Amino acid sequence: MANPSLIADQGVDGVVDLQTMARVERFLYREAALMDAHEYDRWLSLWQGEDILYWVPCNDDDQDPRTSIAIIYDKRQAIEERVQRMKDKTAHAFRPRAKLLRTVSNVVVLSRTGDELVVSSHFTLGELRVGVQNIWFGRAIHTLCETEAGFGIRSKKVLLLNNDAPMPNLTFLV
């Protein structure tokens, strides 16, 4: 059964107005475009604060990351190190760069507390690297904060549809 909090109708529950919803969608589309273009520094600049988290669970969407394996479980320093590795022209695991094309859809604002919004969205990501094509499906849960420049990311949890199956090394941002 679908989680009712993930299918709430923004127009009925009044979490955000239409203008804010449009801004949220534009922000998520921009983040997707930066990831697809391998614009790592610009993507990193979207993250706000020192206590940030980028999490891609493995095997179960709601496992405890302190006691279970995760595909990615990065706080600020580890995110910055990941970005530096991806930019390193001598890191053969990341060369050649994958060609990426992502579609973001089903954007739902789940909650609003102060300057923070919790947002769920679905994505489909096509990846082509060294002649091998993969299609990734998933859902992202962002915690966004309002800044003077627009939205920023405080946390991002990526729930890959196949997170319980063997998968290749992720040489890109999800």
Uncertain ranges? 1-12
Give a count of the beta strands, DSSP E runs of length 2 or more: 6
* Helix percentage range: 10-25%
Distance between the termini: 26 Å
Number of helices: 4
Structural class: alpha+beta
The number of domains is 1
Radius of gyration: 16 Å
- Residue-averaged pLDDT: 89
Topology:
Elements (H helix, E strand, L loop, with lengths): L9 H4 L4 H19 L3 H5 L8 E5 L12 E6 H12 L11 E15 L2 E14 L2 E16 L2 E11 L14
Parallel strand pairs: 1-6
Antiparallel strand pairs: 1-2, 3-4, 4-5, 5-6
Detailed description of the structure:
The chain has one domain (17-160): Roll (Nuclear Transport Factor 2, Chain: A). It contains four helices and six strands; from the N terminus they run αααββαββββ. The model is unreliable at 1-12 (pLDDT under 50). 23% of the residues lie in helices and 39% in strands. The chain has helices spanning 10-13, 18-36, 40-44, 76-87; strands at residues 53-57, 70-75, 99-113, 116-129, 132-147, 150-160. The protein starts with 9 loop residues before the first helix and ends in a 14-residue tail after the last strand. Strands 2-1-6-5-4-3 form a six-stranded mixed beta sheet. Strand 5 (132-147) and strand 6 form a beta hairpin. By secondary structure, it is α+β, with helices and mostly antiparallel strands.
Question: Quick summary of this structure?
Answer:
Helix content is 23%, strand content 39%. The protein has 174 residues and is an alpha+beta fold.
